[in-house]
Amino acid sequence: MLSLLFRYFSYEHFYVIYCIFWELDTDHDFLIDKENLIRYGNHALTYRIIGRIFSQVPRNFSSNIEGKMAYDDFVYFVLAEEDKSSEPSLEYWFKCIDLDGNGVITVNEMQYFYEEQFHRIECMSQEPILFEDILCQIVDMIKPEREDYITLRDFKGCKLSGHIFNILFNLNKFMAFETRDPFLIRQEREDPSLTDWDRFAHREYIRLSIEEEGDKNEGIEVWKRSVEAPF
């Protein structure tokens, strides 16, 4: 029962989502397009997965404007992206990877999405991992009933399912997982009752608060200089 206390939407959560949306929505028309969303998380996501989102495969947009995501669509996206352990998130990303919509994810479908990751790692002048090795890693992690495809049931039965999606389309989280970021590991151990979303929202809230405070201080300094300047 205690874990249920964390399943609420706080002001901190709202503040983080709204501020990130506002940062991406450069013309502030309360709609974002592909080029806006590709900047999410410091360009963490691939163009191929962004394309699937804007094809409205995992979820129909409420904006009713072609190529535009509204605020409530973004809320659904960011919750799915930052907590890939939840069932709604697993269903969201499963639909994205399931290119033909037949209810299973094949080796070819996984390879299609990993190709872009592979090239991005190459562009960073790092040694990319071959897909064959990635496939072995995925199979070892998820242990599907059949090795030639993965079902949604397989994903829901594996605690590491979120990492598999990161391998396929989120470069930053993939690299963090490969290097086993000690900061993230320590966070998880300190309070295992918190979800990935809770941890993300807290980190972002601190970052945004510091930036806001910095902007205020800079504004005060500019004002002071203007007052003290001789006429």
UniProtKB/TrEMBL annotation:
**In what residue span(s) does the EF-hand domain sit?**
85-120
* Any one Pfam family match given in the protein's UniProt record, by short name: EF-hand_7
Gene Ontology terms: cellular component: protein phosphatase type 2A complex
Return the InterPro entries for the record: EF-hand-dom_pair, EF_Hand_1_Ca_BS, EF_hand_dom
Can you name one GO molecular function term for this protein? protein phosphatase regulator activity
Alphabetized, the UniProt keywords read: Calcium, Metal-binding
Q: Which residues cross the membrane?
A: none
**Protein name (database record):** EF-hand domain-containing protein
Organism, per UniProt? Answer: Rhododendron griersonianum
